[in-house]
Design brief:
The complex is a heterodimer of chains A (261) and B (360).
Chain A: E1 9-14, H1 20-26, H2 30-38, E2 40-43, E3 56-62, H3 68-79, E4 81-87, H4 88-93, H5 105-112, E5 136-138, H6 145-157, H7 168-175, H8 180-184, H9 200-203, H10 220-229, H11 234-240, H12 249-259
Parallel strand pairs in A: 1-2, 1-3, 3-4, 4-5
Helix pairs in contact in A: 10-12, 11-12
Chain B: E1 2-4, H1 8-16, E2 20-27, E3 30-36, E4 46-51, E5 54-59, H2 76-79, E6 84-92, E7 95-99, E8 108-113, H3 115-128, H4 132-139, E9 141-146, E10 172-176, E11 182-186, H5 189-197, H6 205-218, H7 231-237, H8 242-251, H9 257-261, E12 268-274, E13 280-287, E14 297-298, E15 301-302, H10 307-326, H11 336-340, H12 347-359
Parallel strand pairs in B: 2-8, 8-9, 9-10
Antiparallel strand pairs in B: 1-11, 2-3, 4-5, 6-7, 6-13, 10-11, 12-13, 14-15
Helix pairs in contact in B: 7-10, 8-10
Classes of the chains: A alpha/beta (261), B alpha+beta (360).
The complex binds iron/sulfur cluster (2 copies).
């Protein structure tokens, strides 16, 4: 053991989320064995109760920040991590739970819980980058396994990960899926959504619903015009942008624009 | 010209010679290009309805398989496939061993190449022909063209300098008749050999004249046309007309669909990847687009940062700078970019608008 080069240490953390993104790591099949051999998994509460105190070379962080305690915890994790990678729609954009940002939390808390006073949470669900500096973001709900392996492989090799910045359209073309809006008038968020999933939904005949979040500079105004032309109601256009990444500046603006008739 | 009652004999002869046959077939609501086992897989009885941003399959003449235009794919996908691994490397005692071995290309018959796409193949040959992989695939390809008797709503090959009859660049040329028969002509030795083996009867003069007439008449039924001005000059003079380009950018999604379906767009990017073990590296080539935010990225940022600048690059390259670079226009008038633009931006309409603006 003494002659073996030190393996980089990896930690995996969860905040407000469904666990699907960290499960993607456990779902890596043979790649997981290679990863376990090349990385030292120092903390991964979902997989093992043994948690080393760090510091960690890389922390993968899933989930959004919804409580004061979590806001403090992410600062602590940041302080103990050399690289911090936010994984998934929750960690990069707030996730589904960020819909609370657009509503009155006190009101629905009172509707749902017999004793709302026992629930202590923030009025917002915010991405990790709203609290601490983030080195890399992996998008998606859940993240794509291939992208996760690519990022970890790049970190191990000391190179830049190969992550696309274009929209889902390129991936539909790559897998030979004829454009759904063109062949069937199906509403699709693909042209404004970041690639990464491999254009999964359109391959099964349904429009992209934008779970990887907006490309950097989407022309959502042009897409809203197309959705209207396809017969979507203003209410539905507002809703279609308010899902996994509703509070990103781009989709928030698109929802507002779309909801205006 | 020979008479073929159907394509059964041709399929059998091609398969006997070891060709895989790639041609049009219906899949996922469109007519795509795929490997075909038998003529029944061709889109008999299907035509397409096209408009900007609109493509629908409709019932067509039952005995004809080539009454469609502007499909979502172009033949480039078989000559410059994407993604493609260029080499792989393995770490060894001396450092690094590179293995660039490539499967020899499968002999492939490209069946149903329209005259616009034939010209596109000629353009690709000029651009990519020096590439060894491309050249090997091209040499392994047999081109079976089908003249156009049913141009589409988005077609403008005539004003792009072509026409509905295949002139050169094919091995066998077919004209499809309404009764499902074909007139076939050979233009190369390979084509002549194949047709000779089919022992097909010569077509009569009347049959030839009738078929030619149907093709000639198609020329008058183009759905679109380009403005009759010097496009190269027009675009060059409007290079810096920013209000014009930013107005298009309001409608353009910068989704790159136009470049991906265009039969002459050839841009590719090359990326090196390593695997988790750190023992293997690979170099991959993938189709790229001038609409991709990374396409013109140099240190510090992209050269063309706005969508307007990207649209200008696409239309100016096709109709203006392509002349300087490759000695002709980059557009063959196939209409694909018009049909497959999700928001229906019509490249011919944009050129008409620019010409109009220029006049006033
Ligand atoms: S620019 Fe448009 S019409 Fe011209 S060859 Fe390309 S896809 Fe076809
Ligand atoms: S012109 Fe149409 S197809 Fe091309 S990038 Fe713009 S929106 Fe996409």
């Amino acid at each position: 053991m003494a002659t073996e080069p030190a393996r980089p240490s990896l930690a995996v953390w969860k905040f407000a989320s469904c666990d699907g993104c960290q499960l993607t790591l456990l779902d890596c099949g043979d790649a997981l064995l290679t990863l376990a051999a090349r990385l030292h998994i120092a903390a991964f509460p979902e997989a093992s109760s043994m948690i080393e105190p760090g510091p960690y070379d890389v922390s993968l962080v899933e989930g959004s920040i919804t409580t004061e305690e979590d806001a403090a915890r992410i600062r602590d994790i940041r302080a103990r991590s050399t690289l911090l990678v936010a994984i998934g729609a929750c960690a990069t954009a707030g996730g589904i739970q960020a819909l609370r940002d657009l509503a009155d939390v006190d009101e629905f808390r009172a509707q749902v819980y017999p004793h709302p006073e026992y629930v202590r949470s923030l009025a917002t669900a915010t991405p990790i980058s709203a609290h601490v500096p983030v080195d890399l973001e992996l998008h998606g709900c859940p993240i794509d396994r291939g992208q996760l392996v690519e990022v970890l492989g790049a970190l191990l090799a000391g190179r830049k990960p190969d992550l696309p910045v274009h929209s889902v359209c390129a991936q539909c073309k790559a897998r030979g899926t004829p454009c759904l809006p063109v062949v069937a008038g199906v509403p699709c968020l693909g042209p404004v959504t970041r690639a990464g999933c491999g254009a999964l939904c359109p391959a099964y005949g349904r429009g992209c619903f934008g779970c990887f979040g907006p490309v950097e500079r989407p022309n959502t105004r042009a897409l809203v015009a197309l959705l209207r032309h396809q017969g979507m109601s203003p209410a539905d256009i507002g809703r279609v942008f308010r899902t996994y990444t509703a509070t990103t500046a781009q989709f928030r603006a698109a929802a507002e624009e779309g909801a205006r008739s | 010209m020979f008479q073929l009652p159907d394509l059964d004999g041709l399929f059998a002869a091609l398969h006997a010679d070891g060709y895989r046959i790639v041609g049009p077939t219906v899949s996922a609501g469109a007519i795509v290009l795929a490997e075909l086992d038998r003529p029944a897989h061709l889109p008999y009885g299907v035509r397409v309805e096209t408009a900007p941003g609109h493509y629908r399959l409709r019932p067509g003449p039952a005995r004809q398989a080539f009454t469609h235009t502007a499909g979502p794919q172009a033949w480039k996908e078989f000559l410059q496939p994407s993604p493609e691994r260029l080499w792989r490397g393995t770490r060894d005692d001396e450092g690094f061993r590179v293995d660039a071995a490539e499967e020899p290309p499968r002999p492939t018959a490209l069946l149903g190449v329209r005259p616009c796409d034939l010209r596109a193949l000629g353009i690709l040959d000029g651009v990519l022909g020096d590439g060894e992989r491309y050249a090997r695939r091209r040499a392994a390809s047999l081109v079976i063209a089908v003249d156009c008797t049913e141009p589409g709503e988005a077609c403008f090959c005539v004003s792009a300098g072509g026409g509905p009859a295949a002139r050169s660049g094919f091995d066998i040329g077919l004209v499809e008749r309404p009764d499902g028969g074909y007139l076939a002509r050979a233009a190369t030795d390979r084509g002549t050999d194949l047709l000779a083996r089919l022992a097909a009867p010569e077509a009569s003069d009347v049959e030839v004249t009738t078929a030619r007439k149907a093709v000639d008449e198609a020329a008058a039924r183009m759905g679109r046309r380009l403005p009759e001005v010097d496009l190269r000059d027009l675009l060059t003079r409007h290079r810096t007309d920013d209000t014009y380009w930013s107005a298009i950018a309001e409608r353009c999604l910068a989704c790159a669909n136009c470049t991906m379906v265009c039969p002459t767009c050839f841009c590719a990017r090359v990326t090196d990847v390593t695997d988790l073990t750190g023992e293997h590296a690979e170099r991959w080539q993938r189709a790229d687009s001038c609409f991709d935010p990374d396409f013109s990225y140099v240190h510090g940022g992209p050269v063309r940062s706005s969508t307007g600048a990207r649209y200008r690059q696409w239309i100016s390259h096709k109709f203006a700078t392509w002349h300087d670079q490759f000695g002709g226009s980059g557009c063959v008038g196939c209409g694909r970019c018009v049909v497959w633009c999700p928001v229906g931006i019509d490249i011919t309409a944009e050129l008409h608008a620019l010409a109009q603006r220029d006049r006033s």
